[in-house]
Amino acid sequence: MTSPSQHFADQITAFDAAAAATVVAAMRADRPLVQNITNHVVMNWTANVLLAAGASPAMVHAPEEAAEFAALARALVINIGTLDQAFVAGMMAAAAAARDRKLPWVLDPVGVGATAYRNRVAADLLGFGPSVIRANAGEIMALAGVAGGAQRGVDSLSGSEAAIAAGKALSARTGAVVAVTGATDYVIAGARITAVPGGHPISQQVTGTGCAATALVGACLAVAPAEAAAVAALSLMKRAAEAASRTASGPGTFATLFVDALAQG
Amino acid sequence: MTSPSQHFADQITAFDAAAAATVVAAMRADRPLVQNITNHVVMNWTANVLLAAGASPAMVHAPEEAAEFAALARALVINIGTLDQAFVAGMMAAAAAARDRKLPWVLDPVGVGATAYRNRVAADLLGFGPSVIRANAGEIMALAGVAGGAQRGVDSLSGSEAAIAAGKALSARTGAVVAVTGATDYVIAGARITAVPGGHPISQQVTGTGCAATALVGACLAVAPAEAAAVAALSLMKRAAEAASRTASGPGTFATLFVDALAQG
Amino acid sequence: MTSPSQHFADQITAFDAAAAATVVAAMRADRPLVQNITNHVVMNWTANVLLAAGASPAMVHAPEEAAEFAALARALVINIGTLDQAFVAGMMAAAAAARDRKLPWVLDPVGVGATAYRNRVAADLLGFGPSVIRANAGEIMALAGVAGGAQRGVDSLSGSEAAIAAGKALSARTGAVVAVTGATDYVIAGARITAVPGGHPISQQVTGTGCAATALVGACLAVAPAEAAAVAALSLMKRAAEAASRTASGPGTFATLFVDALAQG
What is the 3-state secondary structure (H, E, C) of C108-133? Predict the structure, then answer.
């Protein structure tokens, strides 16, 4: 009997830390304006994450202005964590503008699989061709229509390895780079799989660490192709989590020190 | 002349710390999925509070999915701090689903008494039979229709003792356990009143400590009956506030250390 | 060639620190109820800022209740950072109530100039006669219809000095006190310009420091005339930023310590 990671072991390559650092440095030098249509829970948190990392966030989601604003942005983030009709309309308008303007964008299908509404919104957004899809294993499996994803609210019960096959199918079907995050993160670009190790389990006790990863993918998309952007952003997350965990005394101080660590590089 | 607490002194029993700790431990062991329909101000904060305490929060409030999601949840929290039509529709759908499925749920009637809209929404929600109502003294008095509650925005000017009579009436009328929080918290189950002492006044300088208490009541409702769940959650709040206040240098560090303390507690 | 600040140097007076401290002390003694209709990103942050500084915040924005609640409040804050139709309706209802009741209020035109929708909402709100307009240089220039404001999302690329002329025009046209914040803040009341120096650049790495300044202007408006309130609030921000920056190790700890510093005065 083999584990999923053993099954794919010959296809997985380790990430290039120096290349990732170069992308992060380029993002910081550019300070790209990132349009961030995200959920109510993490708006403050992801704005602070983007600012600390060196990007310039703008939370603009009203359907009256989301598409117009996309013309000013260097990248777009769409996160479906909390939905309502106006937000969904803004997401669709912005995603359509991104497609038309060839603006790179990243989709975070939070909680897909949990309700029919989430499934429909996620499927509609997939139609606009995201550059990257970033999610946990359960969400990737739900999005790929693969059975076996034990979805538990917005947390994932499955290790990230369990979603590699689903991620490959999803990447092949959509053309997007698929980033599955977990104890080890996997960035899947067609047949190529890059593993990003590291981080710290205390991240799971802070809401929105996955959303933060998605936001940072958005920032890096402004300066790098999708696969390199995803690897760079996830590597930045892992390193900041490691640094913060060294002196944190719990999830509260961890979250604060994580933001500090993002700013230190 | 006697104070309200003197008046009820013979009816008030001290809480059982060991029983409360047992409930919290059971909640942590189960890691229940808690559907949390709460206000915009505290979504991030209460998600982090629930995660730190060991529960699994899900903020799902859209009317298109709130009822469907309730089928996955182990408990439901409804907090009316910030309202709009879509949120209210989602609250009603989720509360109806909770009633139909016998899912335990807790109502936080933030700011009831301040506007006619809040009064109407709170009254409508009461009709779905919450297991627990958690509020400050002014809100409990407003909700009970008792004159004399000097309501000041979302803060209470009255000591929690002032609402014991109103709380008893509200508990009798609705069948809910009523939790009045303040310097001392009182959990009222029909004629039985349990006092939960402790905590620290700096809690009042942090927004959403009441909302956090409500969210933790929700988490404990997944593993214990209403009265025991309310006592356990309020006791956990009090102990975490005491621990955080020992090293905090102000409300900013207090909030951070409070989250740390919940995870240790 | 002269810089904008040199051009206006003879018109700029230094602020009176003692007078500013008196206003802040009066606000703290009164603990005014401040209705805060603000954006999704900073609701938690500005509520905590107001509580730490000694005010009593209430986030009430639903069109069903925003005007009714204004009758209870001592001052009103309207911040257009994130918009949707219901929020905008609530803003207009509250602003109309403030005008009718002569309730002092402050407008934060976040991101004005970036989209037609923002420009329209900001122009409509101006019609209700804000007591103070608080914004960064790019936003003040956009609001004044002055060319040359290089607007970048919600951050400003122009030094605050660049907006002094636009601020004077805006103050003359609207009768409002105009507060332009940046490395140095300028409070413009007709022909009078007061400079508030100090602060720390790390503030720019935390989302919502401008929004926090606006919220504190609102709190001070409850106890002082517009010009004095603006100067006092901006001075409080500057001093708290200086105090927090002394021990912060990055933007995460800075934000936490900034809240502590506000509570210490």
Answer: ECCCCCCCHHHHHHHHHHHCCCCCEE
Return the residue matching tokens 């989601």. A61
B10 touches chain C (CB under 8 A): no
Which stretches of chain B are DSSP H helices?
A: 4-7, 17-30, 43-53, 66-70, 85-101, 116-126, 137-143, 164-174, 209-221, 226-247, 251-264
3-state secondary structure (DSSP) of residue B112: coil
**Per-residue pLDDT tens digits for A198-225:** 999 999 999 999 999 999 999 999 999 9
Lookup: tokens for A228 = 């390199």
Give strand pairing partners of B36: B77
- Does pTM top 0.90 for this prediction? yes
The count of CB pairs under 8 A between chains A and B is 104
Give CA–CA dist C151/C29, Å, rounded: 39
Which amino acid is residue B23, in one-letter code? V
Q: pLDDT tens digits, residue range C215-260?
A: 999 999 999 999 999 999 999 999 999 999 999 999 999 999 999 9
Size of interface A-C (CB pairs under 8 A): 103
Q: Are strands A132-136 and A151-152 parallel, antiparallel or unpaired?
A: unpaired
Computed over its alpha carbons, how large is the radius of gyration of chain A? 17
User: pLDDT tens-digit profile of C206-225?
Assistant: 999 999 999 999 999 999 99
Name the strand (E) or helix (H) holding C106: strand C105-108
Q: Indicate the length of chain B as a whole number.
A: 265
* A259 vs B: CB within 8 A: no
Q: Give the three-state DSSP class for B195.
A: strand
